[in-house]
Write a structure and sequence with these properties.
By secondary structure, the protein is mainly alpha-helical. The protein is built from 4 helices and no strands.
Length: about 80
């Protein structure tokens, strides 16, 4: 069994990576407004869902669910911008 000294850096690392991926999700939202092609929009939405899965796994590892909530908001914005 791992001691607390080895688990804490892993949780911190997972939290930081989850935040970076979550900010990436918000950064690619304007792609929906720039490219109105359905193929590009579908690819971007699929990419957002993959990133959501990554953030979910990292949030579970870190036991901090703030980035997951923000990532869900980003996916909602991706979905809304796909219909615009």
């Amino acid at each position: 069994m791992a001691s607390d000294n080895t688990i804490t850096p892993i949780r911190g690392w997972a939290f930081r990576v989850a935040r970076v991926v979550m900010f990436t999700m918000f950064a690619i939202i304007p792609v929906h407004f720039i490219f109105h092609s359905w193929r590009v929009s579908d690819i971007t939405t699929f990419f957002a869902y993959i990133l959501l899965l990554v953030v979910a796994v990292l949030s579970i590892i870190a036991f901090r669910f703030g980035p997951l909530a923000w990532a869900l908001l980003a996916v909602l914005l991706h979905t809304l911008s796909a219909f615009a």
